[in-house]
Amino acid sequence: MMRAYKFLMRPTVRQAQALGEMLCDHCSLYNGALQERRDAYRHASKTTVRYGQQSVQLKDIRSFDPARQGRWSFSSQQATLRRLDKAFAAFFRRVKAGEKPGYPRFRSGKRFDIVEFPKDGDGCRWDSTPHDPVTRVRLQGVGHVRVHQHRPVAGTVKTISVKREGRRWFVVLSVEQVQPEPLPATGSLVGIDLGIANFLTTSDGEFVPSPRHGAKSAAKLEAAQQALSRFPRVRRDKRTANHRRAVEKVAKLHRKVRRQRLDHAHKTALDLVRRHDFIAHEDLKIRNMSKAPAPKPDPGMPGGFLPNGAGAKTGLNRSIADAGWGVFLTILAAKAESAGREVIAVDPRNTSRRCPACGHTGAENRPTQAKFHCVSCGHTAHADTVGAINVLRAGLVRREAAAA
């Protein structure tokens, strides 16, 4: 199995400058390759340029510009070209599927923040020895950069990536590991219901309150963004030091919320995996749930529109994004795989409207957001607990059907 490790790098001033130049030159290579594909399709009878053709040109590009492109790893530049090729493959896949395609676009310096080295030892080297307290990563054109390795790396390092987040630099290792020993069986089965008022409710009646990290930082974010909006829109090289500090403050607050959300997701998922052998959850279509409502044209007024609840839906969408369900479910699946636990996603329809006692399903069974009262048998419980119980039952049915 594959696992990723992310460590903070501690480069010197010159190394940080070299890392920035490496990102800039790889960004130029990406944009140049994209421009070549666009020009070939538009002006050369719709000719398609592929990765193999552009990879062959790398040798000439490096010899033509040895001061910039020639100083970096050949393999990392090939990885950058593959990144562009994957973007075009995703574009054509969405076109064939009838979705909104999203044509690959040029990357600015602030939107190109990662360089990948496809193989340890080819342009890079992860240097971690037990007898040396200082861990370093060697990067071609940069040198040996110190790394804050806060935990041991178990397995064989396959790929190494260098990532910039604000003013910090990180190294991301993709490691191949043997399947770890599963955790001891507990005999416990659980269903979970994800929500807004409570982040998570289990079929056992436990509630995990929603941390609302984004809402708690909303006032600081609003103040920082208002301060940033006061600066005039000018070119990047014309910005003042105060402007740059305002930009960094907004980015820093967003990164803090992101880290808080990840920390909460990791801790909640780990607690579930340690206590339960089987976990069932709703197969939520988060992208569809957070879509803006369609406009309603007013038939009596050409060019006018009727109220469609967009204001209320905006608040709901913000709460859904703040909860971070997608991140949590991804982390839960990864931790369950490592621990030998079973996770199953079930259809979420009517899970909070079906009575667990008699099976009656109806919207009238849920008079409020938190209360469940069956109009058929009179069963009363918390609506989220009822939903979690029905999710667990649906998950067990699906597991039995798969086993059969």
UniProtKB/TrEMBL annotation:
One of its GO terms (molecular function) is DNA binding. It comes from the Bacteria. InterPro entries: Cas12f1-like_TNB, RNA-guided_DNA_endo/Transpos, Transposase. One of its GO terms (biological process) is DNA recombination. Keywords: DNA recombination, DNA-binding, Transposition. Residues 325-391 form the Cas12f1-like TNB domain. Pfam families: Cas12f1-like_TNB (PF07282), OrfB_IS605 (PF01385). Residues 174-291 form the Probable transposase IS891/IS1136/IS1341 domain. In the N-terminal section; belongs to the transposase 2 family. In the C-terminal section; belongs to the transposase 35 family. This is Transposase. It comes from Streptomyces sp. NBC_00119.
